[in-house]
What does this fold into?
Amino acid sequence: MFTRKMKIVLLLFVLFCLADNANATPRWRILDSGAIEWQIDGRLPHYDHIEMSGLKVSAVLRYGVNGDGQFVMERSMIWPMLRTIPNNTHASLMQRFAIDYASLLLVNGMALNNEKVKSICIDGRLTVVSLFAIGYQNTGTARNREPVPVVELTRSFFPSTDKPMLCERYTVKNISSKPISVIVPFQKAVYKTDPVKGVDGSYTIVTSIQNKEDCLYTIAPKESLTFDASVQAYKKGEKELIVDIADEEHKRMAFVDKIWNNLSFVSPDPVVNTAFAFAKVRAAESIFATGGGFMHSPGGESYYAAVWANDQAEYANPFFPFLGYDIGNASALNSFRLFARFMNSDYKPIPSSIIAEGKDTWNGAGDRGDAAMIAYGAARYALAKADKKEAQELWPLIEWCLEYCKRKINASGIVTSDADELEGRFPAGNANLCTSSLYYDALVSASYLAKELGKQSSVSKEYARQAKVLKNNINNYFGSRIEGFDSYRYYEGNDILRSWIAIPLTVGIFEKKTGTVEALFSPRLWSKDGLLTQAGTDTFWDRSTLYALRGVYSAGARERAMEHMAYYSQQRLLGEHVPYPIEAWPEGNQRHLSAESALYCRIVTEGIFGIRPTGFNSFSLCPQLPDKWNSMRLNNVSAFAFSPFDIIVERQGNKIKTYVLRNGKPVKTYHTENGKDINITF
It folds into this structure.
């Protein structure tokens, strides 16, 4: 039983966590431009890593500042389409480089030294500003002199949007009172990989400063010069690319600006606004132009040129129609086409992952409930994308996956599977809460989609009927008192709280919402890092926290959700490991997997705004305007046939007023209670 004493303990725990976070000075701050900046202070040393991706390359930059103020960085380069042997899930060409181009410069005939980093900024680029002195004064009385900065060096790192290249720009500024001479050397290193280990033989990697010869410059006080460098790779039959790095920077920032402007979220909370903007970038950039078409892939130095039933079909694909990014939508459709190749009349499981540019599969954990994941994502994507031709193409896949799940229903009316998306890392029994919840949502979506496609009315009604029965079965089979909370067991025999008890809240199953919300934010599950996967452990996977925050908003507990979302957002955007949601810990060292960022964005679209597709021209809306906010808006929504449109929610007394706008003009206006459903049809 959830006693008064337990409630007091829970309240004190939450207040402690939130107060501890409020008192901590964030390492990073938000700039007016929307970027985040770390102004270097005494909290050194500090090290972090960030992943950035383009269509043909990904880079994990391991960077930091030593205790003496010196910048350090290692470039972990990944070329997803340069395949290695064995050509499996992890077979992208990967190499690490620690080249320090600043150390190659000569200023007044001397090397740079005594670096002091001033700031590091992230805005789609990683930009580092440092001060350098020149020449060591190490004899006589000069040994006691403080080095005087002569040069301000700005370094920017970013991936090419469409080439297999990491780009680097260096700007040397004279901050002394006299002219200085600077020699930028011609520098080029060529690496040939082992031909036995490459699918296409030996690969060539080139690191270079983009000069044809040594260049001598004279820089007047307050003036500067810029030179460029790159790391690229190519296969036999291809050539080294000679590119304009300034143009590559322009294209990278144009991509970031486009993603930031599409589906923009505006609220009184700048941290949540900015975290949402950054999450859109990470969700959209990790798409690779493979031999098997555009593939959205998780990343993390492990998962490229491949798609998964959970990361892509379930997490990311339902989000892309809202973002309005053509390549994102193309990657979503392509992933469903790839999975559809494995439909079969015997109803054997669809692979969990299609790897190696579509040439192979992975199914190492058995059936993880993958058909439920695919049906869930494909049906939601089809409704929101509102393209009838695409929906007709996806319909057989959706039907097949639903039939597969139906054939896996046990005597209790619950879908069975070998595992769940955690693939045996934690117990899931032979029938878990997650798979049945996703199957339920897929049935609901299919009932809507059948109408849009002109199927016989009996088809829509039958899916709706099955959904109703399954919802009751979920509550009856999984509903349980766990550790004193009236919530859900994750599988039969489970008696320890699990973070995935949030799943029903994200699909509109609210019968256990009160106990579930209390359990999620109890000291047994909630930690300084978000939700623990299982009570009593120290393992956390951000995906469960992201699902939970969305579900708690959907359940109407918006203040509880807002408190914890604000805390989480500050940790991920401005804390010690920035700027995106992460995969997990301790596994993977908190990698910036891409689909987790899509899940963050869905907290806003599906949680705070409560958007649920019901047709090509219709959706339900359930705004959850937090008590401390007087308004919020979602601009440039690209989902549904009448897009783009904006949604504005304003407080009016104890109620809210919701506007739907097209071309800046209201086309729908609603006065409702906060947190009440609005059915919108055009």
Notes: Residues 4-22 have pLDDT under 50 and may be disordered.
